[in-house]
Amino acid sequence: MEVYADYAATTPVKQEVVDKMMDIYAVHYGNPSSIHSVGRNARKHLDDSRRSVKQALGAKQNEIIFTSGATESNNTAIKGIAYAQRYKGNHIITTKIEHHSVLHVFEQLEKEGFDVTYLDVDHQGLVQLDQLKEVITEQTILVSIMFVNNEIGTVQPMYEIDSIVADSNALLHVDAVQAIGHLDINFHDFNIDAMSITAHKFGGPKGVGALVVKEGTPLQFLQLGGEQEAKRRAGTENLPQIVGFAEALKLATEHLNENNIHLMNLKNQFLVSLQERSIPFELNGSMTESTGHIVNLYFPFIDVETILTLLDLANIYVSSGSACTAGTTTPSHVLVAMYEHDDRAKHSVRFSFNEQTTEQEVKYIATEIHKIYHKFKEDI
Ligand SMILES: Cc1ncc(COP(=O)(O)O)c(C=O)c1O
């Protein structure tokens, strides 16, 4: 058996999505900025995709900016808001558990003279609302907090965060990458000013995503050289990818409830299968404030490199944390922030599932971990 359980890193592209994209590559190949009918035809597909994305997210059409994915969206939102609002204040806030496409931007802004607060999280990976209230000042211009953490699946209390930020002078940016397809997000139910998403986490292609920007949000756009995306993101639109993104988002949104039930059941089955085999483990994160697709576990009996290698030999593909830290020995900054030391991070593995994952697959993973546990028990 072969089990891919690294869907939080990326997902296969759905066949319906591939079909739509192929049609654009081969038939509707025009440049949406060309004024002849081939261009106008491409423009229609671009407009249709934007309409479909805005519907899925409960946003307005002019609030969707297509990008090359969440790394670009996060960079654009954070730098764009920080530079545009600098005349109002110099203080910006994020958390210690953000994706590096957020954290590294804050570190860069810190070097440029911004005053940065990195919020702590508790053992479940949750931001402390009291700390957020305490650190926000009149000088705070931006707060950036992720919706769902990509390593532990913890869901932040976004309505509460949103209302704290709304009572201040600051704007709110949310990295919603791991929330899409798992939480029913209606952009205008919140006071979020900018929200990043990427297609490849829910059955769409890599290299395409969006920044959803609330109408009127002051944002300095840094990419020059074209008038695309209402002058906010220069460069010929990657139409096949955008069409694929819109289709994948539509499918993910339509099947959200049934997928969530499936994933929650799988998560429970996986944990029960490990318990039934008497494998020692602890959950990193929260059992209740979390999505079903990510299960991060601490195995005290083995280090992460060894277990990842042994699982790979058993054709089980998982990772130690985010995709960018996979394959390195650097302990996860998320787990270090949660447990205040890196020992736990050195013994923890992220399993991530999607709607294609089966009960048989999670049981196979549990069986293989059981074999590894017994081998290591004997060796000790
Ligand atoms: C929470 C989060 N933010 C941002 C990204 C970056 O997205 P992209 O691969 O589209 O640049 C990822 C992907 O790993 C992620 O999980």
Automatic annotation (TrEMBL):
Catalytic activity: (sulfur carrier)-H + L-cysteine = (sulfur carrier)-SH + L-alanine
Cross-referenced Pfam families: Aminotran_5 (PF00266)
Gene3D superfamilies reported in the protein's UniProt record: 1.10.260.50, Aspartate Aminotransferase, domain 1, Type I PLP-dependent aspartate aminotransferase-like (Major domain)
Key words of the record: Iron, Iron-sulfur, Metal-binding, Pyridoxal phosphate, Transferase
PROSITE patterns: AA_TRANSFER_CLASS_5
Record-listed E.C. numbers: 2.8.1.7
Cofactors demanded by this protein: pyridoxal 5'-phosphate
InterPro entries: Aminotrans_V_dom, Aminotrans_V_PyrdxlP_BS, Cysteine_dSase, PyrdxlP-dep_Trfase, PyrdxlP-dep_Trfase_major, PyrdxlP-dep_Trfase_small
Residue span(s) of domain Aminotransferase class V: 3-364
NCBIfam families from the UniProt entry: PRK02948.1
Protein name: cysteine desulfurase
Source organism: Staphylococcus succinus
